[in-house]
Each structure stands twice: as structure tokens, then as C-alpha cells.
Write a structure and sequence with these properties.
Dna Ligase, domain 1, 3 domains, 5-stranded antiparallel beta sheet, 4-stranded parallel beta sheet, globular, ligase, ATP-dep_AA_Ligase, ATP-grasp
Length: 288
């Protein structure tokens, strides 16, 4: 089996995937932008071969790297980064080389928050309501619908980056001066509650083979705004209502052979609301 690991060195806790693949007899091939000599000894030992590119954002370089491995080792059986930032590129490479896993036409519901909401709602899973917008006029119109406060963030984004809590008209005006040009944003109602997650791994048939939950001190947005530290812990002591909703969410998105990381809010009146899905391993300090 030939398994290409994209960016096997970053984030650091991803290294163990390559080590474990190698330990299980899988030909483990790495593509990244770090010099080979700068990889840890354990990672160098785990990789059958490493292809360094100058710029991982340059798709032509990434394409040539995969093509090289396919020519030298034969059919590529899997390609994965386990890194949310590269999900679109991973899908494009799988599409171009016909590698099993998410392809280009399957990415919308796991990367765009507006599409995620549609999946949750179509399966009767309670959500924080929201809608995508591009212009200031559209944003002001949505504020009339939702009222204050709301959360505004990129429709396709990672973690709490470029995310704003809008509590009054001045906040929204300030956001309009800071927003990233040519980005579609998503506005959703603000829900007061504790953030919890339903995390795990599915097999090829979509069966959950492992699950757990992270409980956060506070939403990541609050930590970013106060530029402080945060803590979270993992638990497998999951209330029955949360377990049932988590399993229902996995089925709704038909997640197969992947890690999943669903975020929910538990409100003071003990109601659960789905926030979003991330198809990556949980607990990645780079993206929470």
C-alpha cells in the first residue's frame, strides 16, 4: 500500500501518523516544504521517501511530486494531510490522480459553513442559524433578521481566525473596514453556552470505530480576543443525548474512513446546537 502524507512534519503532533503507517508495513511517502535534514530522526526513518517542494501553495509543484511517486512506486492508494488548511488541495490531488477519498465535488459540505448548516437542518439537527453574505448591504440586512449579537467569520475558514463578535452597529462598521477583500463571510446567531465536541474516526463503511469529546474552558474566539491561554480536556464520559446527536451528525455527513471533529454548544437550559464540522483529527493546537 502506498500512502502519501502531505506535510508530515507540521503540525508536530501529526508526525505519529507517518510513524504508525510505517510500523504497519505501509510504504509511507512524504511531501513537504521543510528540508529533509530538518525532519526529526523518527520521521526520516518512517518515510520511505520524502519529496521537498519550495512552496506547498504551488499546485504544479505538488502535482509533480505526486506524479513522481506514482511513477516510481505505482498506484497511490491514499493521500492525506490531516490538516484542514490543505483539504481543498488534498481533494484536487485525489481527483487528478483518482485516489480514494474526498474529491473536488464533495468538498462543499465539509468546508463551507453555509453548506454545513444545510446538511444539519436537512437531518433535523438543531443549529446556530446563519447565512453567507458578500456585501455590506447584505450584511446589514442579515443583522435586521438576526439582531445582536452575532458571529461573523469566513464561510470557509480555519479555527477562530478572521472571526468577529458583532454586538452593535459600530462593531459591524469596524468589521467592514477590517474584512479580508473578496472573501465570502458567514453570519450566524450568537449562542451562549459551553462548547463541546464529538470527535472520532470512521471506517470505510462509515462505522464509528472510536469516539471521544473535548470540553473547552471557553470558545476559541474568546481566547483569541483576550490573547490569553486556554485549556481543554478529553473525555469519553459522554451524555446519552450528546452521543445520539453526535452519531446522527456523522451519519448525516456520510463520513467514511476519516477523522471527524464536530463542534456543538450546550446551553444553560441543556439544549444542544450544532456549530460546524471539521474533517480532521481533533486537538490540533494550530487550528482551535
Amino acid at each position: 500500500m502506498n500512502f502519501i502524507v502531505i506535510s508530515p512534519h507540521f503540525p508536530a503532533n501529526s508526525e505519529q501518523f507517518s510513524v504508525s503507517l510505517s510500523n504497519n508495513g505501509i510504504t509511507t511517502l512524504g511531501i513537504g516544504d521543510k528540508a529533509y535534514d530538518e525532519l526529526t530522526p523518527s520521521l526520516r526513518n518512517a518515510l520511505s521517501e520524502y519529496y521537498r517542494v519550495d512552496d506547498m501553495e504551488d499546485y504544479d509543484q505538488m502535482y509533480r511530486a505526486v506524479a513522481y511517486f506514482a511513477f516510481k512506486y505505482g498506484k497511490i492508494d491514499r493521500l492525506e494531510s490531516h490538516n484542514e488548511y490543505w483539504l481543498f488541495q488534498d481533494a484536487k490531488l485525489r481527483t487528478d490522480f483518482n485516489i480514494p477519498g474526498y474529491k473536488n465535488d464533495e468538498m462543499d459540505t465539509i468546508k463551507y459553513k453555509s453548506k454545513m448548516k444545510q446538511v444539519f437542518l436537512s437531518h433535523d439537527i438543531p443549529v446556530a442559524l446563519g447565512k453567507a453574505f458578500q456585501t455590506a448591504e447584505e450584511g446589514w440586512h442579515l443583522l435586521e433578521q438576526f439582531g445582536y449579537p452575532v458571529i461573523v467569520k469566513p464561510d470557509s475558514g480555519v479555527g477562530a481566525s478572521d472571526t468577529y463578535k458583532i454586538s452593535d452597529p459600530k462593531d459591524f462598521t469596524d468589521f467592514l473596514t477590517k474584512r479580508t477583500p473578496n472573501v465570502t463571510y458567514f453570519m450566524e446567531e450568537f449562542i451562549e453556552g459551553d462548547i463541546i465536541t464529538f470527535d472520532g474516526l470512521t471506517d470505510q463503511a462509515g462505522n464509528v470505530v472510536f469516539y471521544s469529546s473535548l470540553v473547552y474552558q471557553e470558545p476559541a474566539l474568546e481566547t483569541v480576543h483576550r490573547t490569553g491561554d486556554m485549556y481543554f480536556y478529553e473525555t469519553r464520559d459522554i451524555p446519552e443525548d450528546f452521543y445520539e446527536l453526535g452519531m446522527k451528525s456523522v451519519a448525516a455527513f456520510d463520513i467514511r474512513e476519516r477523522f471527524f471533529h464536530f463542534e456543538f454548544f450546550r446551553t444553560a437550559d441543556d439544549k444542544l446546537y450544532a456549530l460546524e464540522i471539521n474533517c480532521r483529527p481533533p486537538g490540533d493546537l494550530r487550528s482551535i
